[in-house]
Amino acid sequence: MKPFETESQRLLDLMIHSIYTNREIFLRELISNASDAIDKMYVKSLEDEDLTFDPSQFTIRLTPNKEQRTLQITDAGIGMDEADLERNLGTIAHSGTLDFKKANSTHDVSSIIGQFGVGFYSAFMVADRVEVISRKYGAEKAYRWTSDGVTGYDIEEWGRDAVGTDVILHLREDAEDENYSQFLEEFTLKQLVRTYSNYIRYPIQMEVTKTRRVEQPKTETVAEGQNGADAANAADAAVGDAMTATDQADTTSASDAEAADEVPQYESYQELETLNSMTPIWNKPKSELTDEDYKSLYHQERFGYEDPLAWTHIVADGTLSYRAILYLPASVPYDYYTKDYKKGLTLYSSGVKIMEHAETLLPDYYGFVQGVVSSEDLSLNISRETLQQDRQLAVIARGIEKKITDALLRLRKEDPERYQKFFENFGSTLKVGIYQSFGAKADQLGKLLVFPTSRSMQDGEDAHWRALDDVVADLEAPDTANREAAAASVPDGDAAAENKAEAPQSGDAAAASATDDIAADEEEERPKSKIYYATGESAERIDTSPAMVGLHDRGIEVLYLTDRVDEFALKTMREYKGHAFQSIFDEDFSLNGADAATEANAAEADTADQTAVFEEMKKALGDDVVAVKASKRLVDDAVILVAQGEISIEMEKAFAEQPNGGYIKAQKVLEVNPAHPVYAKLQQLKEAGDNETFEAYAKMLYDQARLIAGLPLEDPVAYAKAVQKLMEK
What is the pLDDT of residues 164-185, one digit of tens each? Predict the structure, then answer.
């Protein structure tokens, strides 16, 4: 027996016990080696005219033997001679490998060792002895290599009629925590082939046990020795006697016996079956594929039980070529929002599954995407389980990210209904991506955002959510009806002349001129127009908010943000295509254009006469609010709570749901509608000096404003008593 070199023996031990994370990988490695050997035979056929390469004849055969506890992997590849066995299997790596390992001992060995092609040695994870019987193409002799993976190896001349290689694994005995016998079971072997080697280009075959129905011969009814008329007469007499003796009971027994004869019988038999599909659909032209092909792959790879919502097929050729089929799930995976969820695409190389979840191929905000990626250009590390060059993976990841963005944008434009279904499931992930990237992904992900809006609510249940692009398009191109309405409000004739430096104009001319002026003003204001939004628990509740009444009257579109992360994302973005986001619940809320100045002047004029009332209310409410002021947004309602500063009321709610987040509070401003009868009541109480009732009104109005804002009452009992007391007066 030839001993392994000292360095090779240590490295072998490392490979068996450290490099591979899963014992079942051994079969993938051995099948891949067999496939490589057949590839070499194909190349040889291109050089040798006498060699005909018929892919159907070049197969990989699995042969389990439970009695002998062996698993044999046979290929019809190029084969190896004595020198090849010595070089490929006798020496694991070049001299100096141990020094290399020691020099990098602080690193993860599985990622720093080069590509030495030593997947064969994974066999020793499940076998205590391995035999390799091989005959090389063009050679007259075959050889056998044997080793226990510990002491060394033997090479001897052996018999093999055909060119190719047999790898025979003598499986280890089962232990308390290890079941090696499973690798002799048909089901396990079929499952491993389909999981890791389904797209190897050559047939992987195995004799499998099947059952079939056995045809039963018909029962003879005539006694031996009787024939012709005598036999018939005798049979009739026998039947007659039996019927007389047992009557109907025997008839039933005869029927039961006849039924028993019809019970189907089955037998087991062996049949050679191809275990892999061989040709991955991502290598086929898109024109040849149907929807059912894509759905079949989705289920075959066990991405989900439902059919996918949508998919895209990517073919990228260049310095680094790859192919991919990506899917949008129709529903949220049950563990998607848990730490157990594993994002990432299934990665193949040369038909071999390399990674189940290649996380680095997907950014977190596209973590919902499922699918497969295949590339023949990847540099794999020693175990084939991870990639050796992160740069290659980064190139593929950038390309995939762009393709996902394009596919989602196309779906949003071409099929709004399906896109809305997708967004309801996974839109939060896109918004979190904007927030966590500190706005770096705002341009890319912003165009994928859709929201319910005051306009979509008005259009009815069948209306789709509105994209930011659509909202901006309307801001930048107001409809003609709005312009005409604005022009109609402009005074004509003499009234217009008083406001013009030039000569008086006729009514029609003035209106036309006013329309031009309005259009010019709008053109000037458009780049500064705000995108309004409102936050709340549901679109329906937002739509009936007191703050929305005046905006509904003006026909102003407002985004309805109902997801906790919505406002965080928009505040991170700050603006979209030059249009700043503005909450209608911010203290400094104002309308676009001339309406802003009008409201500001009105509010300032009102505040001058109301300062005393508001100061008294602030005194009664203490630190619950930072200010009390006249509202410029209320129409029919008495009060509303708005926020001052960066933390909104809705953000306060979001923080309250987080551990140790309850201390983060919005700076609340209580706005009072001076046109509401309740304000007149407050003035009366203030003038009458009824401080107790005034304070009760102030606190009740504040609590009502909290309820409208969706905030809990700090003291529900006190609130109920205050309402009762005021009702008694």
Answer: 999 999 999 999 888 999 999 9
